[in-house]
Amino acid sequence: MLGSGTLGVIIVGVLQYLGNKHGKLEDEYRNLYQEVKEELKAYKAEHEKVEDDLEKEVSELKATVIEKDREISELKGILREAKKTISEYKRLIREDEKNGSNYKS
User: Fold this and answer.
1) I need a surface site. Which of 4, 13, 38, 78 has the fewest CB within 10 A?
2) Does an H or E element contain 1, and which?
3) Residue 3 — φ and ψ, nearest 5°?
């Protein structure tokens, strides 16, 4: 049978062992927490960069769409003028054909 002194030494030894184990686990937890925190910070920075890049690209695309819309409007105006000119030429040709038949002998 163990004496109370020996039992006390064993208990103190077990408590120290558990305390050391707890301390090591606590250190591992802190290290893992710090790693996760740093990775999250890096991820957040990368996410913000991607978001900024996308916003810039969207702005550029909007500007391109506005410019192309302006060009399309100009081309539509040119097309309308061309149609009017063609109609006018057709009218003149019909008149010439009509008047030309009057000049034939």
Assistant:
1) 4
2) none
3) -80, 165
